Amino acid sequence: MYKSEFDKNFSSNKIFNAYMFYGASDYLVETYSSKVALQLASGEDINKVYFDEYNFDFCYDTLTQSSLFSSSNILLIKIAKKVPKKEVDKLIDACRLNDSSKVIFACVGDVDFKTMAKSFSAKTSSVEVRFFAPYDGEAISILMEQSKILGINTDNHALSFLYNMHQKNLALCVSDLSKLSILDEVITSKTINVHCFGLGNVDIEEFLLNLFRGVNINKDLYYLLDEGMNEIQLLNRITAFTQNLFMINTYLKLNGNLNIKEIWGYPLPKQIAEQQASIATKFRKEDYIYMLNFLLDLELELKSSKISDANAYLQSKLRTFIK
User: Fold this and answer.
1) For residue 8, what pLDDT is reported?
2) Dihedral of the CA atoms 224, 22, 104, 13 (nearest 10)?
3) Is 309's pLDDT higher than 70?
4) Pairing of strands 101-107, 46-50
5) Euclidean distance between CA atoms 189 and 252, whole angstroms
6) pLDDT of residue 276
7) What are the residues whose beta carbons fall under 8 Å from the beta carbon of 40, sequence distance 6 or more?
């Protein structure tokens, strides 16, 4: 189902046993998952399972048992990797058997969740909603709606300026709108330029190069995270970059020359390839083992621990990343 069709169902208060939100906009996935959960129950009555907290037996038991404190039994599962089809089917069936139970899957990240989506159908009163990256006009409308909720006096021109400043990242724009809402003035492009720091001013590729060069990245790291960039998303980018450097390092040891196309299947600009090769050869095999374990442990901590401020914690840990 597409967003427009689901919006009609949501507006008419149509309820499903199970929901799955996924696609090219993590912001919309998370927003709609929260909207539906709050449509079904009050905040304290929503059970939440995030990332590596997911455990099938716990989720199944939660859905098959009636809540002692509420007429609604809502389970919101936020994941960044696919759940096996058999488990999805059983969780949906649990909601069919227990009228008070509803399950919501919020699927974020770059994983292909299409195989999971096949479990959702009218037959089981379940729905999968796939989101695409919103076109500019739709994105500005979303930001205008959020502005009205926050009581911000602004216009489309200012919101378009903010949207492009953040390279069309809705989550970052909404984060800035929350900060701008404390200002007792009309929010114009000039206001945004003074009070907001655009993600476009921090080149993520340059940030990664500097991180591994041992250059002081405190300022850029602060801006990347403080402006609303997802901690897990940034950590995944660093992990992927580490793996790329390791592949280059290994290839050079085996072949003695650099052939990026042979390593990844596509070419890179010569300057970028040479920059990455220069950094890759600085580290030994043991260094890569340490770095990858460091990043995996950090990801596990962020996903499974009750860290009160993930933003600050990630900043402090990354400052000790390169020995």
Assistant:
1) 94
2) 110
3) yes
4) unpaired
5) 49
6) 86
7) 15, 46, 72, 74, 102
Amino acid at 173: C
Residue closest to 234 by CA, chosen among 243, 225, 242, 226 = 225
User: What is the distance between the alpha carbons of residues 171 and 167, in angstroms, rounded to a whole number?
Assistant: 11
d(CA 251, CA 281): 11
> Are the CB atoms for 175 and 143 separated by under 8 Å?
no
- SS3 per-residue string spanning the chain: CEHHHHHHHHHCCCCCCEEEEEECCHHHHHHHHHHHHHHHCCHHHEEEEEHHHCCHHHHHHHHHCCCCCCCCEEEEEEECCCCCHHHHHHHHHHHHHCCCEEEEEEECCCCCCHHHHCCCCHHHCEEEEEECCCCHHHHHHHHHHHHHHHCCCCCHHHHHHHHHHCCCCHHHHHHHHHHHCCCCCCCCHHHHHHHCCCHHHCCHHHHHHHHHHCCCCHHHHHHHHHCCCCHHHHHHHHHHHHHHHHHHHHHHHHHCCCCHHHHHCCCCCHHHHHHHHHHHCCCCHHHHHHHHHHHHHHHHHHHHCCCCCHHHHHHHHHCCCCC
Q: Which region, left, alpha or beta, applies to residue 244 given φ > 0 means left and ψ of -120 to 50 means alpha?
A: alpha
Residue 264 has what pLDDT? 65
CB 96 within 8 A of CB 124: yes
Those residues with Cβ within 8 angstroms of residue 254's Cβ, 6 or more apart along the chain or in another chain: none
